[in-house]
């Protein structure tokens, strides 16, 4: 038995060693070190020597990197001294509910006549010195051309004429603007228009929300297995991402509770580093969306405050924003290891900032993001309209040149080119030109067919080497292509969209759990039996929305029931392999094992913001429910109006 009286002693002797007294003298330490070294085996000595050289190398590399960063910080500090403190907009200048859908901002994009046709960026490196001359000539030629075409509302691009004409429904009519009352139309308990599949989606949402409410309320993400939460920015990410989904699904009580949290608890002045892109698409987009759906001023006030707090990210030497911003302190910075930003991130915040300008009648938000687009429009380093993945915030130039993908780090650049053009009423020809050139670049450089089943897929290009790698993220593309066709672009895009959505569905159908992995490699060898190969590191599924999103667009525009059927199969697989009994859904580690898909214990906020919303809309036959003639979805499935004036 433990006795409190008993004491144990350890004796430590710092006395003689090998007949020598310990005196901490350098001679003693040197001799001792040398003897120890001699006692080591040759292998041990080589290992230590290798480690030593490696650490020296790392030290030099870190020093070089830091010195670049210090230069940036120094410059930024100078600029920050001039930055005005964050100001929350006064209420009296915000719009009234009655006018929430019209009123464009004063800020206008620059005169289109000043711009020429797309510059062929991939020739840049050798002929850089000649660029201004070539561009001047091109501009002069194009200016007269664009002027002529604009009169007739026709955009010309490299000899191709596009007359934006309606191929499906009528364009949004400014005179017929109405305030949407979507909750009345879609509330499951109040109307008969919700079918069985939609009811199943509502049930799935309620199950996901139950877990979030019980174990993660007001936090960023639910960890449904460990029944706790994960904090990313500490801004109630899932709650805000889910607001408009709740509204559309008719979850009134949940919506009111969540709104109360936004009013009482959402603290945007806390000192926290947030990612500009993620915060914009999820939180700013979510707030603007729900403001547009409900007309409730509280959401616009919050959006407006957040917009102000994000603006310091644009205080860079090049005006290409930093990736991170502290919304409480008003300071911004790049990631610790680089001064680069991701191209998709800096070019996929435009829809939200532009809409904020329209609603608040303050130009500054749109001006900041338009500058980025204008700059990237004229930048060298593209290949047939395809952009690299990184851009430097100091120089404003693309970095890591020569790698082109439609997946992570570039994906939504292409999506937002088209959607900005649509949002602005299809007037901004530069955006359309860049989009069309990029689609041609994709077709010419990245599209191949797999073996043996000839599935059309989008691969990647690294220094002119083609790789048959396709991220699940790329599956936004069929939906985007179809949306473009709906707004008057080439029917060839629809042909490609149909082929690609079939491939995206096969990325689910050919896998044991019926769920797509994060990345697949397509087989190009006619002697191999399988079209799709998955590497062990790519077997996870994060509950991502892209394929469901594209199925939704494809069904809306073609009314082909097979898209709903494919979606229903995917929905059932999510229910079978990712649903957690106690509430919530979880991402999984191994889509190839139906025995043990290995739950990852995380429900991403986009599962509620996007995946379930797109399922609900895909299964609906009410084509006016979020009409694609009146609204666009941002890259997080938040709903923004198409401007009508
Ligand atoms: C979402 O945050 C957005 O859809 C983004 O564009 C890509 N990544 C996730 C979903 O996969």
Task: Describe, in plain words, how this protein is organized in 3D.
The chain is mainly α and 645 residues long. The strands form 8 sheets. Strands 5-6-7 form a 3-stranded antiparallel sheet. Strands 8-9-10 form a 3-stranded antiparallel sheet. Strands 11-14-15 form a 3-stranded antiparallel sheet, with no helix packed on it. Helix 17 packs across helix 18. The chain binds 1-deoxymannojirimycin. 1-deoxymannojirimycin binds next to helix 20.
Strand and helix layout:
Blueprint: H1 26-39, H2 42-82, H3 124-127, H4 131-151, E1 155-157, E2 160-162, H5 182-186, H6 196-215, E3 221-223, E4 228-230, H7 237-248, H8 252-264, E5 273-275, H9 276-294, H10 297-310, E6 324-326, E7 331-333, E8 340-342, H11 343-346, H12 350-360, H13 364-377, E9 390-392, E10 398-399, E11 403-404, H14 411-423, H15 429-445, E12 447-449, E13 456-458, E14 460-462, E15 465-467, E16 469-471, H16 477-486, H17 491-509, E17 519-522, E18 532-533, H18 546-558, H19 562-578, H20 605-618, E19 631-633, E20 639-641
Antiparallel strand pairs: 1-2, 3-4, 5-6, 6-7, 8-9, 9-10, 11-14, 12-13, 14-15, 16-17, 17-18, 19-20
Bound molecules: 1-deoxymannojirimycin.
The site of 1-deoxymannojirimycin has 8 residues, from helix 20.
